[in-house]
Amino acid sequence: MSEYNVKKLRRTHKGRIIAGVCAGIGEYVGIDANLVRIALAIATLFGGVGVGVYAIGWLLMPDEEHDTSIVQDLINKQQANRAATDWSGEQKPQQ
Q1: What pLDDT is stored for residue 44 in this prediction?
Q2: Where is this protein chiefly located (predicted)?
Q3: What domain count does the chain have?
């Protein structure tokens, strides 16, 4: 079997200004990150959608150094806490 070179949408450190969302999208799509920033700025001026899109990207896009996003980390932590607590609400002893 041959290896496929799969692009992954990630927040990057290269070209990062705030959280790396625009730089990651620009790298993924193959355009300059400044064009993405301008598009988000225009979307922010016309209804404020750009801020929401950026926040969602920040929460859902994993950092280039991690495999999971912020939301995935929070969900995993919540599931681990739920698994460590039995139905009576008492903590199970850690092994």
Answers
A1: 92
A2: membrane
A3: 1
C-alpha span between 11 and 91 (Å, rounded): 36
Angle, CA 28 vertex, CA 9 and CA 58 arms, to 5° = 45
pLDDT at 8: 84
Phi, psi of 68 (to 5 degrees): -125, 155
| Low-confidence stretches of the chain (pLDDT beneath 50) | 1
DSSP the chain: -PPP------B-STT-SSSSHHHHHHHHHTS-HHHHHHHHHHHHHTTSHHHHHHHHHHHHSPBTT-SS-HHHHHHHHHHHHHHHB-TTSPBPPP-
Residue 46 CB contacts under 8 Å (≥ 6 apart), including other chains: none
- Any domain includes 42: yes
